[in-house]
Amino acid sequence: MNANPVVDTRQQILDTARAIIVSKGFAAVGLSEILAAAGVPKGSFYHWFRSKDQFGEALLERHFEGYLEQTDALLAAPGQNAAARLLAFFGRWHALQSGDDLTERCLVVKLSAEVCDLSESMRATLEHGTTQVLARLEGCLRQGISDGELTRCPDPAEVAEQLYQQWLGATLLSRVQRSSGPLDRALAQTRHWVANQAGLT
């Protein structure tokens, strides 16, 4: 027996919405389309969300919750060195963002340019989430430095930001060009960088 149908329905709306919005964008999708796809009565939306902006915040928070869980599994994986963990993280990024499954496309790339000038609350949610991703990357880099592995990495915070910016840009360009080329190059450059930092080149 379902002990908490309200929570389940809320999550059902958010999960259904993500699959639609990651393809069409935020502004282009009406609440009626989302609720119909989720099989939820139209009038019930405001039981869970005060407004579409608040719904957008919840959508992004749920995205980052799952994304950070996956990130931790890769960047803090036991039994692997920092270089292997970094390459596993970016290798997964490449696989998902260059694949054919639209539901796996990056919600941050999809929504950042669209909503940051329209909704301060959604912009703040994006900033908070991306800051946490950067913190995970920085932590992995610091561990590599501490272990004496990434001996040429001078500033882990700066490097984490550079890597993240590179991959966000490559993901955006891959959409513009309808090609995996930018992501292929980002992966090759990241592999070269990791090898260089580890003194392997």
Describe the structure.
This protein has helices spanning 5-24, 31-38, 45-48, 52-75, 82-97, 107-115, 120-146, 156-177, 181-197. It is mainly α and 201 residues long. Helix 7 (120-146) crosses helix 8. The model has no long low-confidence stretch (mean pLDDT 89).
Summarize the structure.
With 201 residues, the protein is an all-alpha fold. Helices cover 73% and strands 0% of the residues. The longest helix has 27 residues.
Summarize model confidence as the mean pLDDT: 89
Q: Ranges with pLDDT <50 over ≥5 residues?
A: none
Largest sheet: none
The tally of helices reads 9
Structure characteristics:
73% helix; 201 residues; elongated; single chain; mainly alpha
